[in-house]
Amino acid sequence: MWYSTQADRVFTDAWHSDSAIVSGESLLNTRSKAYLSLRLWYLRVNVIQARDLVPGSKDRNPQVYVKAVVGDVILRTRVSLDKNVNPQWNEDLMFVVAEPFFDSLIVTVEDRLENNMVRCLGKCVIHLSNVEQRLLPLPADPLWYNLEDIVFEDGMDKEVNFFSKLNMCVSLDGGYHVFDESVHNGSDYRPTAKMLWTAMIGVLELGIINASGLQPMKLRDGRETTDAYCVAKYGPKWVKTRTAVDSFDPKME
């Protein structure tokens, strides 16, 4: 038996004295934890047009499209209806990205050849930390980006001084809420940008006391048992109670 308060530095260990039957890495998972959801932003890439592309052959009309990559997500525009070296698209590509912005937006302009072959006509890399953050639903300023291309010459890489260009509006839209949970069970509908949040009206305190009549979920040493815990979420914060080991009527307190 242990008597003290939650302010005692050994409270965490004493509170989990009933977890002695759990060993190894699983013991760490029996303790209570608090999590904060990542702040998610919409990354809007409005691909407008390209200029002075250099196709591989002048004997055919180029079938040009734009591919954008952020992390493991790849999005593509349609093939431009302009079969020339100055194609236009005016098409939006939407990504969801999370803070902190460690990733980069990689944009390539590609020419679709026969037999499902593709030739890269140029590439630009934009770090997300350098992208404009918008709070209002206003269009971002279009910018011209150089499309870097590498020319292979006698087995060596040679950088050229001439650049094709790509016109785009790239922005992080903070005036919207990015859903990361079911719409029907959502508890947070605020926009991403903190400047648009309403003022706090109070503090919500939740006490999870106990549960009763739980069903067995596993077998341990040939008998049915349950290791139960509760999860609560409000806004961006998730809270997990301690795990009550081997009990159908757990007390969380």
Notes on the protein architecture:
The protein is mostly beta strands. The protein has two domains: 11-37 and 184-240, no CATH class; 40-173, C2 domain (Immunoglobulin-like, Sandwich), CATH 2.60.40. The protein is built from one helix and 16 strands. The chain has one helix spanning 11-15, and strands spanning 33-36, 40-51, 64-70, 73-76, 88-98, 104-112, 118-127, 132-134, 143-147, 150-153, 156-159, 164-173, 218-220, 223-225, 231-234, 237-240. The strands form five sheets. Strands 2, 5, 8, 9 and 12 form a five-stranded mixed sheet that branches. The chain has a four-stranded antiparallel sheet with strand order 4-3-6-7, with no helix packed on it. Strands 1-16-15 form a three-stranded antiparallel sheet, with no helix packed on it. A hairpin with a 2-residue loop joins β15 and β16. The longest helix has 5 residues, at 11-15. The radius of gyration is 28 Å and the shape is elongated. The chain starts with 10 loop residues before the first helix and ends in a 13-residue tail after the last strand. Residues 151-155 have low confidence and may be disordered.
Secondary structure blueprint with pairings:
Layout: H1 11-15, E1 33-36, E2 40-51, E3 64-70, E4 73-76, E5 88-98, E6 104-112, E7 118-127, E8 132-134, E9 143-147, E10 150-153, E11 156-159, E12 164-173, E13 218-220, E14 223-225, E15 231-234, E16 237-240
Parallel strand pairs: 8-12
Antiparallel strand pairs: 1-16, 2-5, 2-12, 3-4, 3-6, 6-7, 9-12, 10-11, 13-14, 15-16
